Structure formats: C-alpha cells, structure tokens
C-alpha cells in the first residue's frame, strides 16, 4: 500500500514580491507627500492668473461714408494688466488685441511691448486709436446703419497676451485671452457698460 504523503509547505513570499510591495508602498507615500506639498504651496501662494482688462473706453469721433461703407474712428481704450498674486511679479509679453467692427473688419491692432507687473499690482495700458477708411462688408454696413439709427455702436476687442509668473519655485506660463464687446452711445461716445471685459487664462 502506498501511503500518500502530502507535505504542506508553508507558502513563502518570494523576495521579488517583497521588493515589489515595498516599491508600491514607497510610491504611495511619495504621491501623498507630493500632494501635501502641492496643497501647501497652493495655500501659501494662492496663485491667481494675471489678467488684462478694459477699464474705460470712449468713442471720440466717428465718421461713416454710407455709399462706400468707409469708417473713420477716433477712440480711447484704457486697459490695465493686473497681477493679483501677492508674492510674485508677473511678466506679460506678445500682447496683441484687435479692435473689430461686426467681428469681421479690423479697425486697429493694439500692441504692447513686453513688461512686468509687480506683485499685487497693475500697469495701465493707454491706447488712442485713430483709424480711417476701414472698408465694411455688406453685413457690416447694415450693422452700422442700425447702430447709427439706434444710437449704439458696438465694437469688439479680441486678442491675447502671454503671461509668466511663479508659484513657489515652479514657473507657470499661460496665454490669457480677451474677447469682449465694447458699446458706445452715439453721438456722445460714452460707453454704458464694460462688464466681462477681463481676459481669461486657458
Ligand atoms: C494688494 O493691494 C491692495 C490695494 O492695493 C491691498 O488692499 C491688499 O492688502 C494687497 N494684498 C496683498 C496680499 O498684498
Ligand atoms: C450719452 O448718451 C446716452 C444716450 O443718449 C445717455 O444715456 C448718456 O447718459 C449720455 N452720456 C453722457 C456722458 O452724456
């Protein structure tokens, strides 16, 4: 008779598995530590993206040739670059904004050389726009007729600027985009509202 013997060997964990398990534990710890570091830097610096916004604007002069659809304007646009970060300066560059009529005809391009805004500071950007002979397309001509009749002229300002600042030691680079409507009473040229004329970073 053959006696069946089953030898029960305790299952030993192989060294390789131990190594793997410790690497996993170390990684998990590293993730927790990195997360805590990110949160504490965030809380310490409370980073906020720098923005460009329109503070005020006025249409000083407008002449329109109905036959040819030619538009002359003289207007002022007062913008400002704002750095809401309390701990770090923000650098702006490649700032370029197009002033458009009916979203199609470019009246002027507003530019700024590279500049820096100190922490928790603002820098004014003052533009005087003089443009003559901008040719409106058919849709634009219609829109201008309606605007003159209603006494409300609408222009749009679209563009972007490159922003650079730091969160702790980390450099952050983002484009900030401006896309807003500027309204002017005609003929007095004052601007009734400027809501939502602040750029957004994305
Ligand atoms: C930022 O500036 C404003 C006014 O200029 C001031 O009231 C505020 O306390 C400043 N904040 C920081 C964090 O420096
Ligand atoms: C400009 O004209 C509009 C509409 O006619 C009027 O509501 C506004 O008060 C005027 N603004 C100024 C500064 O005269």
From TrEMBL:
Its subcellular locations are: Membrane
Q: Which domain of life is it from?
A: Eukaryota
What InterPro entries does the annotation carry? NDR1-like (IPR044839)
Say if the entry is tagged with keyword Transmembrane helix: yes
Keyword annotations from UniProtKB, A to Z: Membrane, Transmembrane, Transmembrane helix
User: Cellular component terms, GO, for this chain's entry?
Assistant: plasma membrane
One of the GO biological process terms? defense response to other organism
**What is the name attached to this protein's record?**
Late embryogenesis abundant protein LEA-2 subgroup domain-containing protein
Respond yes or no to whether keyword Lyase is given for this record.
no
């Amino acid at each position: 008779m053959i006696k069946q013997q089953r030898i029960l060997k305790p299952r030993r964990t192989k060294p390789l598995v131990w190594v793997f398990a410790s690497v996993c534990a170390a990684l998990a710890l590293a993730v927790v530590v990195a997360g805590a570091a990110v949160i504490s830097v965030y809380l310490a610096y409370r980073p906020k993206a720098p923005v460009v916004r329109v503070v005020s604007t006025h249409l000083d002069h407008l002449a329109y040739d109905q036959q040819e659809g030619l538009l002359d304007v003289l207007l002022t646009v007062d913008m400002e670059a704002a750095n809401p970060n309390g701990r770090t300066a923000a650098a702006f560059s490649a700032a370029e904004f197009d002033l458009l009529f009916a979203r199609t005809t470019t009246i002027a391009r507003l530019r700024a050389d590279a500049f820096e805004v100190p922490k928790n500071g603002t820098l004014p950007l003052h533009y005087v726009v003089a443009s003559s002979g901008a040719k409106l397309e058919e849709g634009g001509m219609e829109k201008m007729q309606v605007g003159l009749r209603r006494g409300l002229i609408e222009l749009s300002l679209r563009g972007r600027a490159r922003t650079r600042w730091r969160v702790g030691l980390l450099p952050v680079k983002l484009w900030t985009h401006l896309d807003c409507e500027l309204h002017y009473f005609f003929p007095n040229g004052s601007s009734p509202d400027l809501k939502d004329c602040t750029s957004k970073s994305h």
